[in-house]
Amino acid sequence: MIQPIPHKNVSSIIKQYDTDGHSPYLVLTDELEQYVLKTFKNTHDRPSLVKEFLCASLLNFWNINTPPVSTLSLSPELLDSPFVVNNNRFSHSSVYFGSELMINSIDLQLFITAKGKVPIRKILNPSILLDIALFDIWIENDDRKPLNNNLLLCPNNKGLLITPIDHALTFASLQFNQLNPEFVSFSDNDSIVFSSLGLTVTRQMKINAKWLAHAKEKFYICTSLIEESFQQICDNLPIEFRLKDEEKDNLHGFLINKERNRNVFDLFSYIVSSIK
Length: 276
Description:
By secondary structure, the chain is of the alpha+beta class. 36% of the residues lie in helices and 16% in strands. The protein folds into 2 domains: 94 residues; 168 residues, Phosphatidylinositol 3-kinase Catalytic Subunit, Chain A, Domain 5 (Orthogonal Bundle).
């Protein structure tokens, strides 16, 4: 289930995205693949990119597709390019986070503003939105909200697949050694289920006791699999982004804590059951 994270060399920097946060770059690798590259914002920003790699692995155990990730480094000739010379973020590390660009994907936020219900019928996996909502509570995602959903719709045969991206501001935006397993710090109003698509999907699912029991079983299967593979997940992180022993122990206690996970699912149950 765990695939080694590949390393790729960047041969060209195409552009920088004008966004809040990491302001990533669109780059081209030696294999002519397009990737979105993120650097550290500053010398204290290392955990945010660790979280990107970590969440990509955790999502795999939840059977939620996310773009393939890779470590990226720059070709020597790029070190004199204006992109690098004019941005000291590249000086904080020589290895960066990369997420493969999903060609022809659509920002879900733009898609759901279309009039009528016909476009929604093109989504092949609408129910995955509720799995993502539960995942977000579990990892305390501060950056996926109804008006900032960080979701793509990726072409697949004759339809579109919901695909989550951007996990730098997860784990309550805290350092790993600051995580507290004694409570769940997630605002229910921030759940993706309160987006227009989330409300539609949740109402169509007809949430009842049977549905919740099935969702709970899936949740505990996922967390059990992660508990069994936790060391392997940590060992698979790129060497430049490995967790210290203290961070690793605290993360394990945070993700696998039985009482916390019970509270995580209770909050999820409350959120989806409140939508009529």
